[in-house]
Amino acid sequence: MMNVSRPPRRRPLRAGQRASSASDRAPADRGPSYGAPVWLFDLDNTLHCASHAIFPAINRGMTQYIIDALGVSHDVANHLRTSYTRRYGATLLGLTRHHPIDPHDFLKVVHTFDDLPAMLRAERGLARMLAALPGRKIVLTNGPTDYAHAVLAALGIERLFERVVAIEHMRTRERWRAKPDHAMLRKTLRDARVAFADAILVEDTRGHLKRYRRLGIRTVWITGHLPAHVASGGRPHYVDHCVRSLKSLGRGLRSGALRSRRQ
């Protein structure tokens, strides 16, 4: 693992906007991508080790926000935070459905840190490993937009992704959505002109992989940033390829473990 130094500030991309320096993005007028892999990367505990400092800080921030907003005890706030995550995929979804909170304020407060780069840990050579992967690359995260772009910029890899799909982009007119919602992923891939058979989801959360595997996408479970007891037990049947490090993704392509469903 490495400490990440703060890079020069970059102007964040707007929702759906593609990075101008991404050489592997598809033309805007192209239909669904056939053949070449399209990598859907989770952010936390996938592209960096959120368990080190980010997740503990976010969890504390969520619990305190719930205490302040709802006037409940610390134990009740913790229960709401964890139970809503298990039930809906994200604490925010439970809060918006059952309580009168401002979702944008919640996201901003609990994902803002005084010195984000100092909290980050990532694999050595991260940018090089990602750049070496063939195909398009998209970030798909239940975190908010500003936080996602700040993390990618601090890691020095923002330019490698053609777009960031954050939780604000997953919502519909009716409600907020998040992984592992099926309708959200269908719309995300349709908007990005990606065929299900060409998508490869790289995630640390087994529940997301299990649910999305049913749609026909390829699944990679990355375990290198997870606690040992969570990463144990072997490869689940709904996981096409299990890796500890992102450097093993290319090996999965070469070995056939991530062979396209079209083949």
From TrEMBL:
UniProt GO molecular function: nucleotidase activity
Stretch list, region Disordered: 1-30
- Give the InterPro entries listed for this entry: HAD-like_sf, HAD-SF_hydro_IA, HAD_2, HAD_sf, Pyr-5-nucltdase, SSM1_domain
GO BP, one annotated term: pyrimidine nucleobase metabolic process
Q: Sorted alphabetically, which PANTHER family does this protein's record hold?
A: PHOSPHATE METABOLISM PROTEIN 8-RELATED
Mind telling me what this protein is named? Answer: Pyrimidine 5'-nucleotidase
